[in-house]
Amino acid sequence: MPATNGAETFDYIVVGAGSAGCVLANRLTASGRHRVLLLEAGGHDRHLWIHIPLGYGKLFADARVNWLYSTEPEPELHNRQVIQPRGKVLGGSSSINGLLYLRGQPEDYDHWRQLGNKGWSFDDVLPYFRRAEHQERGEDALHGVGGPLAVSNVCEPHTLCEAFIDAAQQAGFPRNDDFNGPTQEGAGYFQLTAKNGRRWSTAVGYLRQARRRPNLKVATNALASRILFEGRRAIGIEYRQDGATHVAKATGEVILAGGAFNSPQLMQLSGVGPAKLLRSHGIDVVADMAGVGEDLQDHLQVRIQYRCTEPITMNDVINSFRHRVYAGLRYALFRKGLLAIGAGYAGGFFRTSEQAATPDVQVHFIIFSGETSGAALHPFPGFIASVCQLRPESRGFVRIKSADPAQAPAIQPRYLTSAFDRDVVVAGLKLLRRIMTQPAMTRYIAEERKPGPQVTSDADLLEFARSAATTVFHPTSTCRMGSDDTAVVDERLRVRGVGNLRVIDASIMPTVVSGNTNAAVVMIAEKGAEMILQDARAQ
Ligand SMILES: Cc1cc2nc3c(=O)[nH]c(=O)nc-3n(C[C@H](O)[C@H](O)[C@H](O)COP(=O)(O)OP(=O)(O)OC[C@H]3O[C@@H](n4cnc5c(N)ncnc54)[C@H](O)[C@@H]3O)c2cc1C
Questions:
Q1: What does pTM read for this prediction?
Q2: Which residues are catalytic?
Q3: Is any ligand 1 atom within 6 A of the Cβ of residue 266?
Q4: DSSP string, 432-446
Q5: Which of these, 287, 315, 411, 507, could form a disulfide with 479 (CB 3.0-4.6 Å)?
Q6: Which is the closest atom of ligand 1 to the Cα of 344?
Q7: Nearby residues of 349 by Cβ (< 8 Å), 6 or more positions away
Q8: Ligand 1 atom closest to Cα of 225?
């Protein structure tokens, strides 16, 4: 263990400057009373493509800003390994994500409350969503203005998106102009965490402002390698920067915000986790906690590819020099056009059966096509509609493979290991096809390329999912909040049975929310920061 003499001392140390970490750094330093160290394994967010929404596709495989994880062979996906990009840069995954702003369903949070988590019902968390938000459409009972997280409309409608929304209506689903409004069900355009055509990560929205404060120190390219304990009380962090090992001490708390893969990894490396796993890697056990790294959940997505009848897709822009130049100029001059769009343009939330009380699948309608996420676009007009099950029952894990903090942990979501999930995915594909075969859509479809019209039976659709499904990048719940034996944090996000240590990021979600996860993580961090400050005042 490195000597801690001369170690810099802070009130709070936050590990990870991602979606949650930047919020925490801002809120904890706002009063000027607390000194905070924010540690980030990645670098500054200067990469040009981070800030241009469409640049999202360029960051999937860029090691300068991405951990580039992938899963272990997935047993129900023919042992395929599924890519798991994660942001490794200021802003974390909010700097590389698809920008869609979706909170999930009120029922998700009411369910968290019903699981015993006091203070986490939808009515309880709504003020934190509103506090975070700067909603371009203005304020109302559900939306806030003046917050650090800019939320805006897509800049302009698109012919194909209009066709998709019309087709959904022809299939019997409502049009929905606000998926974060009174009801989630229906088809419409997504909103983006963007402002004036630029990405609005938490590094932009929260950290930029906070970095001017003298009581915040941000250390980049600094990999936290261990939580330091005195008995069962966290007292600091050991981290690696510039080839040297450093120690920082916390008189208040250590807060883990490394995300659903790295927070449980750091706990396990530090002796907090399943004792048998830790001992197998020669790690001394501080607290034997079976749940650390368990309960991994993620949204699996299955993409149907179409060839379009008209050259109106993004493929046609990207594959033409003239159109590319025009799109570039339009963006440079007006911040409009294709460069200003995120991962999905339009989409919807639907119920696959009468038994579902609320939507159980999400559709992302994407006006370009390629073989896989992040792959080169097809050389012909094409688009994609994908389906993902919102509330999977399958549970996986994150487990260290080595005591070396630089080694990636084993990540295994165990997609489709639940029969219920397999049924919903098949039902979702059938529902999506029902929409895509309505008159409003068929005039734009030259062919369904994959899986193709020959694939019709449930068994064949499931086989297609097994061979082609990927993630929609929403891993959660590996340091699950709760009060049962395997819950990791309590309702105030304190690690159970361990002092001065909290986890505040996507890993605390008791269950993954029914939508994209960034907005929920920002809400969790807003609420988490408030709880830390309340507890400090109460001491
Ligand atoms: C490609 C992609 C597309 C997505 N699209 C969307 C979308 O359109 N809409 C949406 O709502 N959600 C989307 N998501 C999901 C969403 O972005 C994440 O759920 C959210 O950002 C997670 O926030 P977090 O704070 O838990 O973790 P992160 O934002 O990943 O932050 C963790 C941070 O901790 C740092 N870190 C980790 N370990 C250490 C360590 N040991 N020492 C120091 N630093 C460390 C990491 O480098 C990172 O910066 C997407 C995610 C990805 C990857």
A1: 0.97
A2: 474
A3: yes
A4: HHHHHTSHHHHTTEE
A5: 507
A6: 8
A7: 176, 179, 184, 185, 186, 359, 361, 362, 363, 390, 514, 515
A8: 41
Nearest to 204 by CA among 96, 95, 58, 102: 95
- What secondary structure does DSSP assign to 192-219, as a single string? ESEETTEE--HIIIIIHHHTTSTTEEEE
How far is 140 from 136, CA to CA, in rounded Å? Answer: 11
Atom index in ligand 1 nearest the CA of residue 263 equals 38
Q: Using a 6 Å cutoff on CB, does residue 17 contact ligand 1?
A: yes
Ligand 1 pocket residue status of 22, Cβ below 6 Å: no
Distance in Å, CA 504 to ligand 1 centroid: 12
Does residue 517 have its Cβ closer than 6 Å to ligand 1? yes
In terms of Cβ atoms closer than 10 Å to its own Cβ (0-12, 13-18, 19+), residue 353 is exposed
Q: Is 236 helix (H, G, I), strand (E, B) or coil?
A: strand
Which helix (H) or strand (E) covers residue 238, if one does?
strand 233-241
User: To 5 degrees, how large is the angle CA 410–CA 77–CA 475?
Assistant: 45
Tell me the chain's radius of gyration from C-alpha atoms.
23
Ligand 1, atom 3: nearest CA belongs to which residue? 97
DSSP state of 28: H
State if residue 518 touches ligand 1 by the CB under 6 angstroms criterion. Answer: yes
Neighbours of 428 (CB within 10 A): 25
> Which of 50, 225, 517 has most ligand 1 atoms within 8 Å of its beta carbon, as the pocket-test mutant?
517
| Per-residue confidence in pLDDT tens, the chain, 539 aa | 444 557 899 999 999 999 999 999 999 999 999 999 999 999 999 999 999 998 888 898 999 999 999 999 999 999 999 999 999 999 999 999 999 999 999 999 999 999 999 999 999 999 999 999 999 999 999 999 999 999 999 878 999 999 999 999 999 999 999 999 999 999 999 999 999 999 999 999 999 999 999 999 999 999 999 999 999 999 999 999 999 999 999 999 999 999 999 999 999 999 999 999 999 999 999 999 999 999 999 999 999 999 999 999 999 998 999 988 988 999 988 888 888 887 778 999 999 999 999 999 999 999 999 988 778 899 999 999 999 999 999 999 999 999 999 999 999 999 999 999 999 999 999 999 999 999 999 999 999 999 999 999 999 999 999 999 999 999 999 999 999 999 999 999 999 999 999 999 999 999 999 999 999 999 999 999 999 999 999 98
Distance between Cα 92 and ligand 1 center (Å): 5
Whole-number Å distance, alpha carbon 172 to ligand 1 midpoint, is 36
